[in-house]
Amino acid sequence: MALIQCGFFAQTLGLSMSMNVVIPERSYGIGVEAGGAQTGDKFPVLYLLHGLSDDHSIWLRRTSVERYAAEYGIAVVMPAVHRSFYTNMKSGHDYWTFVSEELPHVAQSLFPISGKREDSFAAGLSMGGYGAMKLGLRAPEKFAAVASLSGAMDILAFDHEGSPLADKEYKWIFGSKEEAAGSDDDLFALAERAAAGGVSLPRLYQCCGTEDFLYDQNIRFRDHVRSLGIALDYEEGPGDHSWGYWDAHIQRVLAWLPLRGGKV
């Protein structure tokens, strides 16, 4: 695998941004092993999202995701989005537009990764789990599968369930609770609209540790989605909001992804 540490200008944000990318290497006939599943000359890609207090470097620093991805011949794109909740902020920048539209375009223009739905996946932890599930529910035509690990699934519960956001920061991102409820940032409402509209959703995966402070949110979201008739692969077991849990479960996510080439 090659590691690319990339800085670029995001037009939707008006900011210089960063992403780390790990990508399989191919054989050029000089003794290097060929690198994994490909579609023509393009690799499948996992957009891997960070949590609230993290950045684009964290998955590589705290897990062995590069080594795990090498087994599947899949590229992994890890962007920085600050404390945005992957949202077009009420008082800030358009991070939803950035991650759902500009980021894939930039990544595909710079690296040999596929832009086809069947080769595109998203996953993330905590705030990033929320972001990945939002990509699946709001941009289902772009992703074949999305996965949430210990996701912050209920943005309306942040005032009483170990909220990671101060009140003023919540308002900068989502506005008031009344504005957030039923909006395109409310995963519960997005699931309802997808079910009512007969939308063809990507495969959905959700996991959470039973000792995680976000466990109750995850149970509510699981039950809500299943009550709507939406298929959801769900796993739980011992674990808290920690990197040991996420290192183990990103391996499960990679094994679960519907990669057309299978494992290398």
TrEMBL record:
It holds the Pfam family Esterase. This is Esterase family protein. It comes from the Bacteria. It comes from Cohnella rhizosphaerae. InterPro entries: AB_hydrolase_fold, Esterase-like, Mycobacterial_A85_antigen. One of its GO terms (molecular function) is acyltransferase activity, transferring groups other than amino-acyl groups.
